[in-house]
Structure formats: structure tokens, C-alpha cells
Amino acid sequence: MLMSYIWTGLVAVSLLAALWTGQGGALASAVAQGAREGITLVISLAGSICLWTGAGRLMEHAGVTGLLARMLKPVLGRLFPSSRTDRHLAGSLSANVCANLLGLGNAATPMGIQAAQRLALQSKNGVATDELCRLIVLNTASIQLIPANVAAVRTALGCASPFDILPAVWITSVCSAGLGVTAAWLLGRCWRK
Amino acid sequence: MTDYVVPLLLLVSSVLALRKKEPVYDLLLQGGAEGLKLLVTLIPTLVILLVAVTMLRSSGAMELIGQFTAPVFRLFGIPEETALLVLIRPISGSAALAVGTELMASHGVDSLVGRTAAVMLGSTETTFYTISVYFGAAGIRKTRYTLIAALLADLTGFFMASLTVRLLYP
Q1: ipTM computed for the complex
Q2: What pLDDT does residue A68 have?
């Protein structure tokens, strides 16, 4: 339902703005142009998407996720103390974080939900625990090593080196995830349960 | 340096998979086919949303939104052209992709605005969607401070995206 409101809102705002600026002609041609550009975008994305989902599958089976999981163990243990005693939780937690890091969105969500359900067992009367809040904040602050989709769009638009944004993406992700988790940790200490 | 990240990643994962006697080539094909299937389901979404975003751009609404929000954005050093992207990113992933693509196309992929849009897309998530899916599945009704912390993280992301692009790609 949300998307219906967004779509209607976008069209209404465009129409009102066109009336205001007197750009009615441009608005009319934009409808056909947008539809054509949508298809052009999908076709030029297809190659990169095909390659990167293939590479994602390969990384999963190659044990890259397992390697990352071992490297992340100390950090995750500190962020989620329950994972030190609960092996089930530790497994789905690190699978969730590693899939996010590798940009495997489809694999990340089910694992994250498993971890969330496991953490929710400790909560009473539907009130989120601090660890659960931290898990969700970590998932809303995307942490990706290879932002394949964005790079695919850049390639589609004719960029010569689509991955040159990597350092900026890494720094930004670390800062936003770090601040999000720190804020959650601080808020958790003073927020009433 | 970044030129070697991707080829190296492909080589390392292929070699690691071979050592585990995994069928590297078949895995690539299977994954690729799955990705294309996913893309097909995305076609209507991208077409419809690009129609909406192109309408916004050509009607002059994007500039109006940019002008309206410019004082706040300037305060944080975020390019005001990215206003709509910043507003829509936490709500809808596909709409954000459409807005970001339009920004990169109209300002140039290697321009300040185009790069900032790319970094924003690559380092933030669809916050509201993620929160509702996770808490819904876990059966939680009182989410306490989660939304505040998540939105603070998003704001940091938008701010840092603008800052890093300004500093790293002069």
C-alpha cells in the first residue's frame, strides 16, 4: 500500500509543479521518455547483475563467508553477548552480517530474521531487548564491501571505472553503522525497558 | 588500487572454491540465472518509478524540492540536488534506485552530485522497510529507540557520503 501512496504523491507533485512552472509540455513527453529509460536501464543492468549474483553464489560456496565469520567473531561477540553462549544465534548472526558484507541481500534477510526471532525469545510482552535493537540498527545501516548494484548502474550509464567509489562507500558505511550502533548502545542505557 | 579489488575478489573466490572441489563455473551460471530472474521481476517497478521520477524532474518539481530544503542541506554540506534521494531512501529501495539513477544520468556519473548519489545508494538501506520486516517477524510491538538510532545512522551516511566524495574526488 505504501508504494501506491508514493506513486500517487510523486505524480501529484509533478503535476502541481508543472502548473506552477508552466512546464506542461515537458511533463507530457516525460511520461513516454521515463518508460523508455526504465527499459533501457534494465537491459544495461542485466549483464552486471548476472555476473554479480553469479559471483555471490561462488563466494558463498568458496567459503568466503566462513572466512569473514571467523574474522568478525570478536566484534560480534562484544555487540551481541548472548551469541557467546547461544551457538544457534551466533551462526545466524554471523551469516546475516557476512551476507550483508558481500551484498547478498537475498541471503541476508532470512538469516537476520532467524537471529531476530532467537533474540526475541528473551523479550517480554513484545518489548524489544537492547541486543535486538542493535541487530536491527546494524541491518538498517547497510555495510557492503562490494556495492554491486550501484556499480552496475554506473557501468550502465557509461562510467569508465564504476568501482572507484569503493573507498568512499567503505568509509561512509563504517561511520554510519558505527554511529548507529553507538547511538543504540547509549540510548539503550537510558531508555526505559 | 580499487582497480584490482574486483578482479582479485573473483580470482580468490574461484581458487578457494576449486580447492573445496566446488564446480566454480556451474555456480557462476546458476547464480547468474537467478539474478536475471530477479531482474525480470524488477522490470515493471523500475519502469513505473522512472516514469514518476522523470515527471518530477521535467516538471521542475525536483528543483523546487531542492530549493525548499537547501538551507538544511547546506548546513550539513549535502548537495541540495540529492534532496529527493535523501528523503525517499529510507522509505523505498526501488524508488531510491530510480531517483539515484536519474541523478547520475542528468548530472554525469563522475560529477560531484552523481558520485554522491552513488555512494549514498551504496552505503544506506531502506530503513523503515527493514525495521518493519524484522520486528514483524520477531513479534515485537515496542521498538523503543530503534528508529531514532537507525535514522541517525542514515543521516550520518548521507553526510559522510557528501564529505568523502568532496574530499576523495576533487
Answers
A1: 0.89
A2: 84
